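Bumping my old thread because nobody answered last time. Still need a sequence for this structure:
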């Protein structure tokens, strides 16, 4: 049996991480690998629905203590997956009414036991414009300066997460209309023959 690789793929809302990681998983599956993509926020939402939360974007409006409980419950469920490649789509920080909150607190990281941390990034203007075009989510209106601050904080959270888990960390650039290059770079970082 092949040891499971747990790859946390994070990035700012609007960076295109879900697109990149979905394509990477699809490519791995076509190559015969047992790969799965899960979204930490979706697992959290399943638990939050039991509390009366009506949409996923409302989770970040919950008290931080409730968010932490939801994160840990979701992480425990994800940690039970035994696929060859388990990709966990998430965020490194969440903007709440109380301030920024870690998307991956230490107990969540320890539960997930990542082997690799990947941050999908893109130019600030690309992220900003993608957010404006995305009508499927309820996002806060933020300036390019605020997006730049989130990106800087996310990079700092990535370093802390790597230091606390011993997982490697990789940055993958997802420039506008070049997601196939980002997919290639992500798979290359996993040392999967292409």
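Sorry it took so long. Here it is:
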């Amino acid at each position: 049996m092949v040891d499971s690789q747990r790859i946390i793929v994070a990035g700012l809302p609007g960076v295109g991480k879900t697109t990149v990681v979905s394509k990477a998983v699809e490519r791995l599956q076509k190559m015969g690998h047992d790969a799965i993509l899960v979204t930490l926020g979706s697992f959290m939402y399943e638990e939050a629905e039991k509390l009366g939360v009506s949409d996923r974007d409302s989770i970040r409006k919950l008290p931080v203590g409730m968010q932490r409980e939801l994160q840990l419950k979701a992480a425990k469920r994800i940690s039970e997956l035994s696929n060859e490649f388990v990709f966990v789509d998430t965020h490194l920080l969440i903007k709440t009414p109380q301030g920024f909150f870690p998307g991956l607190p230490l107990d969540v990281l320890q539960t997930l036991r990542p082997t690799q941390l990947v941050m999908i990034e893109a130019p600030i203007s690309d992220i900003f414009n993608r957010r404006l075009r995305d009508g499927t989510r309820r996002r806060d209106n933020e300036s390019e300066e605020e997006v730049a601050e989130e990106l800087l904080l996310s990079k700092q959270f990535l370093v802390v997460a790597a230091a606390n888990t011993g997982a490697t960390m990789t940055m993958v650039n997802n420039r506008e209309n070049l997601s196939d290059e980002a997919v290639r770079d992500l798979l290359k970082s996993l040392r999967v023959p292409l």
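Residues 144-165 form the longest helix (22 residues). Let me know if any region looks off to you.
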